[in-house]
Amino acid sequence: MKITTFTLIPALVLSLGTGAMAADDEETPLAEAMEDLSASLKKLRRARDFNAKAELIRGGEDACIKSLQYLPATIEAMPDGADKTKAVADYRRLMGLTLALMSELELAFLAEDEAKAEELVDKLKDLKKEGHEKYEEE
Questions:
Q1: What is the Cα–Cα distance from 125 to 12, expressed in whole angstroms?
Q2: How many structural domains is the chain composed of?
Q3: Are 44 and 117 within 8 A, CB to CB?
Q4: Is-contact 78 134, C-beta < 8 A?
Q5: Residues contacting 39, CB < 8 A, separation 6+
Q6: What CATH number is given to the structural domain containing 36?
């Protein structure tokens, strides 16, 4: 069972929340949720079997759900108005898609379908790129 592309997943949702660091470098609740997500995904390479991988993904899904309570600092800093409203909706869309893909990934692990898992990883990479472009602070 070789799923090696999981080294690229941890930054997926984390990248959406990297702007969530406070000015005094204290971690925000969003950054903590993203770290939890990242940690669960980093452990995939060491997971002993498909069921263990599915369990790790469930932890990441929980962190993804938690992250929906917060917004990246880049959005928080926007002035109120239509642009901010659209950015909030788009962030939630990205997080919802992330959760859906992670749930599909969990199902792929439970079905022991390595090919499907690899396909989902590719989709998660694309979503990560979109999140980076929109919400990562430079």
A1: 7
A2: 1
A3: no
A4: no
A5: 10
A6: 1.20.120
